[in-house]
């Protein structure tokens, strides 16, 4: 299975509710799922999202 990845970062000033809403929107409308999260020493939240790459049907 092949996946496409997207990295999303939120500064420490962004409220948790706002970042959760953004991730929910990505999951609902973009078919992304959570792959990994990381919180740096400075408070920046980095999230890696992934989704399956659908193979294109062959013509003919």
Describe the 3D structure:
The chain has one domain. The chain is 25% helix and 38% strand. Strand 2 and strand 3 form a beta hairpin. The chain has one helix spanning 16-30, and strands at residues 3-10, 33-39, 45-52. The chain has 60 residues and is of the alpha+beta class. The protein is elongated. Strands 1-3-2 form a 3-stranded antiparallel beta sheet, covered by helices on one side. It contains 1 helix and 3 strands.
Short description:
With 60 residues, the protein is of the alpha+beta class. It has one domain.
Topology readout:
Layout: E1 3-10, H1 16-30, E2 33-39, E3 45-52
Q: Any key phrases for this structure?
A:
single chain, 60 residues, alpha+beta, 1 helix, 25% helix
Q: What is the N-to-C order of secondary-structure elements (H for helix, E for strand)?
A: EHEE
Strand order of the largest sheet: 1-3-2
- Please give the domain count: 1
**Taking all residues together, what is the mean pLDDT?**
92
Largest sheet: 3 strands, antiparallel
């Amino acid at each position: 299975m092949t996946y496409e990845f997207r990295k999303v970062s939120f500064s420490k000033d962004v409220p948790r509710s706002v970042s959760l809403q953004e991730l929910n929107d990505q999951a609902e409308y973009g078919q992304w799922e959570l792959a990994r999260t990381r919180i740096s020493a400075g408070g920046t939240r980095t999230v890696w999202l992934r989704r399956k790459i659908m193979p294109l049907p062959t013509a003919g």
